Amino acid sequence: MAKTINDVLEAARQDTGRVQLRLKAVDMAILVKGVVTANQALAHNKDQVIKLESVKKSLVFGDQQRLSEVVDNLINNAIKYSPPGKEIHVHLKETKTAAVVEVLDFGPGLTKDDLKNLFRKFTSLSAQPTGGETSSGLGLSIVKHLVDAHRGKIEVTSKGPGKGTSFIVEIPKSES
Fold first, then answer.
1. pLDDT tens sequence across 28-52
2. Per residue in 65-78, is it b (16+ CB within 10 Å) or e — as a string?
């Protein structure tokens, strides 16, 4: 319930343009590892395994709490929509200009209509949670807004129903 209330409040802040970022150098390797660790119990309860592959250090200029929300939402969705027994892969790598986080699941995948409407508020997609979880329909719109606020990019690919989904987030590297 608290997560749903926070999602609604965050959506309202987006509508008024009132999302404030507390910018500083953030090590995405530490951040991603922490979010993966925080979600391990949830994955374990569904007989899922989160596999992390990460560079040792990747500095970006961003809001640590907001970036944690982005990664947490993507991992949480992968757990929520993947069937029991599936793996979830989280990769952190670097390009010359960005830290790149990929969350890859082997769940139900997305249809072409899902991909068109993915980041709209209160959108219900074709995939359904696999363990009785619920969805506010706000999480991915919040993720998109926060990635945009960090001057980053988000990309989603799915080869269709039953073939999983890959979310890739790029956040610009810190200059220092």
1. 999 999 999 999 999 999 999 999 9
2. ebbbbbbbbbbbbb
